[in-house]
Amino acid sequence: MKGVILAGGKGTRLWPLTAIANKHLLPVYNKPMIIYPLETLKHLGVKDILIVSGGEHIGWFTEFLGDGSGFGVNLTYRVQREAGGIAQALSLAKEFTKEDNMAVILGDNIFDNNYIEIVKNKKKNEAVLYVKKVDDASLFGVIEIGKNGKLIGIEEKPKIPKSNIAVTGLYIYPPNVFEIISKLKPSSRNELEITDINNYYIKNKKCIYKEILGFWSDAGTFDSLLRSANWVKRNDNNFAN
To answer: Whole-model pTM?
Structure first.
């Protein structure tokens, strides 16, 4: 399985910090943010990893991470030349992943790796969503689950959530994800949305979910960045690499 870290975007929620540094290189306690998703992929057994970021920032990543050998991985880089959304950024991984399954993680997601594991009963062409029960579900993509425990769909930042289970920024996709991306239409934000990918798999009964019991945070706001840093400070000695 290959790994993909999506580290694009302008980081507007963390302005003015992002006026001088890429969001994914900001410190989360004692490490740059990008190290945490990298460590999560390593924990899943992934060593060949692609980092996708904007052209104005890609040099910062290569200067810091190099070829990845210093971090125990093999790194490749691709430039997202336009702000076309998360799904559009993922489309740039097609030549890298080829016919392999891929673990895709958003570059600002911090996980307690002790609670992350590969789903062993995944079927062919089936996607896996890692989800987490949260108190503020209206801030995230929220899954709806039927009485039989099967996924019904995902609603993005609903005013009245149908559950308290949020979709995190960690996914496992089969190689046919690129066919799905090619069929997507831009959203009202004129972007290709990853929620549309996930809903496609759900609609076609090719999606399962794995609930995370440990810590998870999107570190893309001042409050969540602080919350993530405080968690790392408390747990650094036990942080699973």
So the answer is: 0.93
Cα dihedral 23, 197, 171, 92 sign: negative
Contact 204, 176 (CB under 8 A): no
Q: How would residue 241 be classed by pLDDT, with cut points 50, 70 and 90? A: very low
- Measure Cα distances from 230 to 14, 122, 161, 187, 217 in Å: 17, 34, 28, 35, 11
Domains, the chain, in order of start with CATH, read: 2-235 (3.90.550.10)
* Cβ burial 152-172 (10 Å sphere, 16+ → b, else e): bbbbeeeeebebebbbbbbbb
Closest C-alpha to 134, from 158, 169, 167 = 167
Model pLDDT for residues 198-220, shown as the tens digit of each residue: 999 999 999 999 999 999 999 88
